[in-house]
Amino acid sequence: MTRVIAVANQKGGAGKSTVTVNLAVALGQAGRRVLVVDVDPQFDTTAMLGYAPEDAPHTLADVFLGESEADDALLTDAAPGVDLLAGDSRMADVELTLVSQVRREEFLAEALTEILPRYDYLVLDCPPNLGLLTVNAFVAADEVLVPVSMIDRNAYKGAATLLSTLDTLRRRRVDVRTLGLLRNNVDPRRNTFQTLDEALPELDAPLLQAQIPMRSSFHDATTEGIPLVLRKPDGRAAQAFRELAAEIEATDARPRKTTDKTMVEVA
Ligand SMILES: Nc1ncnc2c1ncn2[C@@H]1O[C@H](COP(=O)(O)OP(=O)(O)O)[C@@H](O)[C@H]1O
Ligand SMILES: [Mg+2]
Q1: How far, in Å, from the CA of 185 to the mean position of ligand 2?
Q2: Cβ(184) to ligand 1 under 6 A?
Q3: Through-space distance between the first and last CA atoms of the chain, rounded to whole angstroms
Q4: Is 58 in the pocket of ligand 1 (CB under 6 A)?
Q5: Predicted confidence (pLDDT) per residue in 87-135, tens digit
Q6: In angstroms, what is the span from residue 193 Cα to ligand 1's centroid?
Q7: C-alpha of residue 44 to centroid of ligand 2, in Å
Q8: Which atom of ligand 1 is nearest to the CA of 12?
Q9: pLDDT at 256
């Protein structure tokens, strides 16, 4: 059974792309078959795995535009155990054209249906907003993982906004649960960390035990296009991602609904 996890937070810099690639690699190292889907027009996830959109046979934009099936777009073995459905800056235009289409929130879910059974996990990296592409990811997903930057004073409010959006979608029969809040950019000596760390349990969402430390080496990993989990496997940050992968593996995945999981108009 495949678990589809959307990594989302409307705040840029929360660590969505970093978490997507390193979690995917950690799951791949644990022997899982993983597909990363880069939904963000900025395609940071694609770049963090060391690829440009041109390297892929097709991108997610081609899939949305009907120019390719997801199956023909895959960049296989982008990292050990990890395939990639690459992003593309044209996704920004795709989002605009989607607005006027019927079943516009379900496009991604439908496009991924056929390749889904091949994988244990799909990890979807969302854009830094709650627009139509992110909603497509929520509809395609079973679970949402929310990285929270523990150096961002406004992160509590941001997470609360996201959780309330998810509540709204659930009221509209989108079947997606909150996997948890993931503390990222962790430096326990900072006041901002301490304040947030006390406040986050008040939110109506599981707080994951794994915490991703703040490390400048994430930046170098991005520049080189090699996920930190691969680049520095013995470091504390890589260890944290292996703990995150194990924690996620230990949480019960609900069976996917066989019925159409959607839905009336949202957004
Ligand atoms: N734990 C961390 N420690 C240090 N830098 C981090 C950490 N997580 C993310 N970053 C850096 O912060 C920036 C934004 O991260 P990114 O994953 O692109 O966020 P998002 O996808 O949410 O916009 C990147 O330069 C990334 O390398
Ligand atoms: Mg990103």
Answers
A1: 14
A2: yes
A3: 29
A4: no
A5: 999 999 999 999 888 899 999 999 999 999 999 999 999 999 999 999 9
A6: 16
A7: 6
A8: 23
A9: 52
Question: Is 121 close to ligand 1, i.e. is its CB under 6 Å away?
Answer: no
What would the mean pLDDT of 43-47 be, rounded to a whole number?
A: 98
Question: 48: closest CA among 189, 171, 179, 230?
Answer: 230
**Residue pair 74/236 in contact by the 8 Å Cβ criterion:** no
Q: Which residue has the tokens 């691969």?
A: 230
Take atom 27 of ligand 1 and give the residue whose Cα is closest: 219
Q: Cα(39) to centroid of ligand 2, in Å?
A: 9
Longest dimension (CA), the chain: 51
Asked if residue 258 has pLDDT above 50, the reply is: no
Domain segments of the chain as ranges = 3-249
Residue in 9, 16, 18, 232 to alter for ligand 1 test, most ligand atoms within 8 A of Cβ: 18
Structure confidence at residue 260 (pLDDT): 46
> CA 64 → CA 87, 95, 127, 170, distances in Å?
11, 9, 16, 24
Write down the pTM of the prediction.
Answer: 0.95
Q: Is the dihedral of CA 110, 115, 118, 123 positive or negative?
A: negative
Q: Is the pLDDT of residue 213 over 50?
A: yes
Q: What is the 8-class DSSP label of residue 55?
A: G
* 254, 257, 258, 263: CA torsion to nearest 10: -160
> Which two tokens mark 78?
């982008």
Q: What is the pLDDT of residue 45?
A: 98
Homologous superfamily of domain range 3-249: P-loop containing nucleotide triphosphate hydrolases (3.40.50.300)
Nearest CA to ligand 1 atom 13: 13
Tell me the best of 218, 231, 232, 243 to mutate to test the pocket of ligand 1, counting ligand atoms within 8 Å of each CB and taking the most: 218
